[in-house]
Structures are given as C-alpha cells and as structure tokens.
C-alpha cells in the first residue's frame, strides 16, 4: 500500500548549542513529543482556512520504521521551497543528524552536528544576542486517525530533514503551530502556500491592491487580510484568529 502523502513541518523548544574544539556546533533536536497538541492550518475543498489539532501517540512516535529513518538526515538552513530535501538541490545543507537517538519524558531526541560555516555563523550571531537558535522538523505520516473528541492521532512515517539553525520565533510556523500538506485535499496535490503580504492596517507598496480587495469584501474592517499564493494562484483570506496571524507572520 502506498504511503499517504501527508507531510508536516513542526517546531519545538529552543535548542542547547555547544561549540566543539574544531569550530563545529553540537546540539540535540526534539523530533516529537507524545500527546503535545499540534495545531495546523490548511484549506478545505472550498478554499476556507481551517484549523485542526493533531497529537502523536507513543506508538506513532517511537515506531521502528520511523525512528530508523532519522540517522544521517540533513540539517538545512531553511525548509526547502518544495518541502522535501531533494538531494540538496537548493544548497541548504549545513549539518547532519547523528546516530544517537534517545527517548526521554515522551520526547524523541536526536543529536546533531552543524559543520558548515554558514550555519556556524548563524548560530554565533543568534547566541551573541543572548537567544537560542531554533529548529523545525519535516516529516511524513503513515496514518492519521480521528478520535471522538475531534483530535487526530499521528502515526509517523519517514523524517525528511531538520531546518536549523533558525532565528528565534521563525521555526515554521510559530510556537506550537505547524503546517500540513495533504495530497488528498486538493486535486493538484500538495498545496504550496506562500504568504505574499499581511494587511494589518499599514500602507505598503501593495496598498492599492489591498484597497481593491477590501472593496470586494464590502469595505469591512478586518483584523488582518492575508494573500496566499496557492498553486500559482493568488487568493485573499480574512483572518481574525491571533494564533493564525502569528503563524503566518512567522513565514514571511
């Protein structure tokens, strides 16, 4: 049976970083935590932004096939534009996940090394401000099961990459928020969502375009209007949820 095309980008807590004698940096990455609510935003078949909550079960997080996919995976400066690492065609690789994996307090942890000068420079710049670089994992799902309370349970598949080191707050897509790409939701396959701009009452070079869109919605005042490019088509959405505003803002 072909694995469903369900792909996730999540972010967890800031990471500890240790500089080695040869200039490389060591860290450990949290790949998942049993029972931690993960809030995802996507589009339904009518183009409406919707939210749902997923959690990963103990079996879903620590299953052997998923864990075996971790060692040797790339650390990249940012999530690839097409979400998958794809043999480093975008030249983003700056490190590697090691074959040292641990299970602690319901968390799946893996050690990693950053050994590219670009990654080292980002780490040292962020550490100099007194903050910690962050990381965001990209992985597939083998299965999703909806519970009676409406929450979905994940069963993890293969991991693809880890985006790190990231600026504090920029782990896609904000604290406690991730993005999901489900091939079954849109006829063209994965929805590629690119934030073009956020309208929060401030004028910018896109002001005329935003004014036109507000006229099309009756001129009502909204908390924010976001325009996404979805499969090469620009679409405007009115946003009032603070969590979604923060999540999308982290992508810009």
Strand order of the largest sheet: 1-9-10-5-4-11
Arithmetic mean of pLDDT: 74
Order of helices and strands: EEEEEHHEEEHEEEEHEEH
Number of strands: 14
User: Separation of termini?
Assistant: 37 Å
Radius of gyration: 19 Å
Describe what this molecule looks like in 3D.
This protein has about 250 residues and is α+β, with helices and mostly antiparallel strands. The chain has two domains: about 5-185, no CATH class; about 195-250, no CATH class. About 15% of the residues lie in helices and about 45% in strands. It contains five helices and 14 strands. The two termini are about 35 Å apart. About 30% of the residues are buried.
Short description:
This protein is of the alpha+beta class. Helices cover 15% and strands 44% of the residues. A hairpin with a 5-residue loop joins strand 9 and strand 10 (152-166).
Secondary structure blueprint with pairings:
Elements: E1 6-11, E2 17-19, E3 25-33, E4 38-43, E5 49-56, H1 58-62, H2 64-68, E6 74-76, E7 93-104, E8 107-114, H3 117-127, E9 134-146, E10 152-166, E11 177-182, E12 193-199, H4 207-216, E13 224-230, E14 233-239, H5 242-249
Parallel strand pairs: 4-11, 5-10, 6-10
Antiparallel strand pairs: 1-9, 1-11, 2-3, 3-8, 4-5, 6-7, 7-8, 9-10, 12-13, 13-14
């Amino acid at each position: 049976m072909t694995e469903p095309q369900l792909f996730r980008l999540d972010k967890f807590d800031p990471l500890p970083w240790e500089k080695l004698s040869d200039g490389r940096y060591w860290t450990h990455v949290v790949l998942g935590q049993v029972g931690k609510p993960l809030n995802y935003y996507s589009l339904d078949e009518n183009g409406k932004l919707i939210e749902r909550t997923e959690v990963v079960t103990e079996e879903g997080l620590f299953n052997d096939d998923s864990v075996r996919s971790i060692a040797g995976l790339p650390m990249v400066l940012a999530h690839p534009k097409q979400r998958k690492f794809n043999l480093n065609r975008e030249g983003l690789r700056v490190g590697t996940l090691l074959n040292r994996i641990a299970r602690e307090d319901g968390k799946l942890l893996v050690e990693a090394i950053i050994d590219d000068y670009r990654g080292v420079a980002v780490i040292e710049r962020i550490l100099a401000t007194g903050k910690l670089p962050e990381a965001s994992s990209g992985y597939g799902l083998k299965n999703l099961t909806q519970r009676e309370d409406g929450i979905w349970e994940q069963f993890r598949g293969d991991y693809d990459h880890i985006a790190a080191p990231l600026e504090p707050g920029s782990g896609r897509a904000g604290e406690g928020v991730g993005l999901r790409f489900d091939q079954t939701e849109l006829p063209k396959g994965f929805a590629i969502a690119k934030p073009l701009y956020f309208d929060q009452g401030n004028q910018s070079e896109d002001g005329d375009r935003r004014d036109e869109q507000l006229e099309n919605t009756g001129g009502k005042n909204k908390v924010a209007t976001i325009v996404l490019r979805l499969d090469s088509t620009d679409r405007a959405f009115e946003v009032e949820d603070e969590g979604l505003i923060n999540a999308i803002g982290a992508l810009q």
